[in-house]
Amino acid sequence: MGNNKEGINLLNFNMVKYVTDEKKKHNQLLLQSIKQQLEELDYQISNEKWRLKNGYIRNTLVPRTILTQEGPVTFRRTKYKYIGADGRWHYKYLLDDYIQLDKWQRLSLDFIIAILDHITSKQTYKNILAVFPNMDISERTISNIIKNIILKN
């Protein structure tokens, strides 16, 4: 009697819990979608003719985790090997070039841009950390983002 068409008991309805639960569900769907898109792009790269023409040979699939604005995303990407100018085998992840990730970078470009938006609005490092409470970043991470931007310019 007290249920609506979605099966929610209206007599015990807690709006805060409902909204929080729905946000978590949508966030998990978004993170899963990001993972699928990255893995699909990696698959497309692996089937490109230019990859073979340039000597990139598929080696193995390797997991990688990056932090996005929405949370961490772990995906599998292809490790390629190729013979360098020195005649030795070298290794590369072609997907990283496409999504603009440096070798040791763990923050996605969208997350860096979001942090920079907060910096340009003159928020303190602690305030920025409060905006992303579930992210594994520190004030030092924010400082390094600024230093890297300064060095690149």
How would you explain this protein's 3D organization?
Strand 1 and strand 2 form a beta hairpin. It contains 6 helices and 3 strands, in the order H-H-E-E-E-H-H-H-H. It has a 3-stranded antiparallel β-sheet with strand order 1-2-3. 10% of the residues are buried. It has 153 residues and is an alpha+beta fold. It has helices at residues 15-46, 49-53, 94-98, 109-120, 125-131, 139-152; strands spanning 57-68, 71-83, 89-92. The protein has 2 domains: 13-104, no CATH class; 107-153. Helices cover 49% and strands 19% of the residues.
Task: Let me know the largest β-sheet.
Answer: 3 strands, antiparallel
Number of domains: 2
Let me know the number of strands.
Answer: 3
Outline, from the CA principal axes?
Answer: flat
Percent of residues in helical segments? 40-55%
List the total number of helices: 6
Distance between the termini: 65 Å
Write the layout of secondary structure elements.
Layout lengths: L14 H32 L2 H5 L3 E12 L2 E13 L5 E4 L1 H5 L10 H12 L4 H7 L7 H14 L1
Antiparallel strand pairs: 1-2, 2-3
Properties at a glance:
flat; alpha+beta; 2 domains
Would you summarize the structure shown here?
The chain is an alpha+beta fold and 153 residues long. Helices cover 49% and strands 19% of the residues.
